[in-house]
Amino acid sequence: LELTIGIVGATGVVGQTAFDILADDFSGFKVKKLKMYASRSSAGKVFNFRNTKVTIEEIQLDSMLECDALLFATDAAISQEYIPKLAEKGILCIDKSSAFRVHPDVPLVVPEVNGHTLSYEKIAKFPVIASPNCCTIPLVMVLKALDNEFSLKRAIVSTYQSVSGAGKPGVETLTEETQNFFVNQDLTCGKSDVFPKSIAFNVMPYVAGILENGDTDEEAKIIAETRKILEKVNLPLAATSVRVPTFVGHGESVTLEFKNKVTAKHVKEILAKFAGLRVIDESSKLEEDDFELFVTPREAHGKDEVYVSRIRTTDVFENGISLWIVSDNLRKGAALNAIQVINHCALNGTIISLKRK
Ligand code: 2RA
Prior knowledge:
Layout: E1 2-8, H1 13-24, E2 30-38, E3 46-49, E4 52-55, E5 57-58, H2 61-64, E6 69-72, H3 76-88, E7 92-95, H4 111-114, H5 120-125, E8 128-130, H6 136-150, E9 152-161, H7 167-184, H8 217-230, E10 237-243, E11 250-258, H9 264-273, E12 277-279, H10 297-300, E13 306-314, E14 320-327, H11 331-347, H12 350-356
Bound molecules: 3-amino-D-alanine.
3-amino-D-alanine is lined by residues 133-135, 161, 165-166, 207, 218.
């Protein structure tokens, strides 16, 4: 199947990652034509996509109607404005923003976890699929694998989120603050346009705004999205989201309680068998692996897998396990997951049926 694909928000960090994946190494559906959309200031820029020139267009409904599927890597406001109009015309939209993630009629999908929710009957009614938050995606892959075997009772997660989660401005802010530290010895801890306090040589327990119950927006997203994807509306889950001065790759420290007996060895076996996950531990280098002991965010940068390390039992809970997850927040945490969702809909016939409708 050859598809006309649109990337909306094509010049942002997620849009550019989607472009790179489709241009370089994606082995699923074939791209017949790539269309790229961004704000007026970027319109006219030219990219080389597999030896053809693609010119960035300003976001415009008529042009987007020519696509078979669109990946929205923009703010929720843009998604809210354009996606309902495209959906009405039967164009498949994969939304990376939070605009539709908890909408009851919109599947929130990590293909390895709940690809089964993507039936044509469901998508035909409202052809919108949401891609989860960049911390939720790796987390639910691990939780799903382990819930299937050990029956999950509760989860506690702390995130270590890189600045690219806040887009290009986040990356620029860390770069400028770091330079300022070395060049001017400036150690003030003032706010920037992006973060409420200085991020260079610092960490902050704050990703996005604070809600009435004291959780941040990010924490609330992780909790609500995990419950929706795992279809466990009452799962006890605590999240603390922390911004750290790394550029790409989100880490997560996770402690879990299960109903069934667990051992670290059994957990490793189960995780190693789950599509998209890789276990890296003390034995990894012995097996001539490219990693040893554990994986860090910088090592995960540019990789498609979600890595799990430091797997051990804990006596905090009766059947307790603690572990460390890390993945590229721009690839599996964002662009790659959305592209895999499109691929799933291409393979199961949904896109071709939408086109014929
Ligand atoms: C962040 N999760 O890391 C957000 C991006 N969606 O800021």
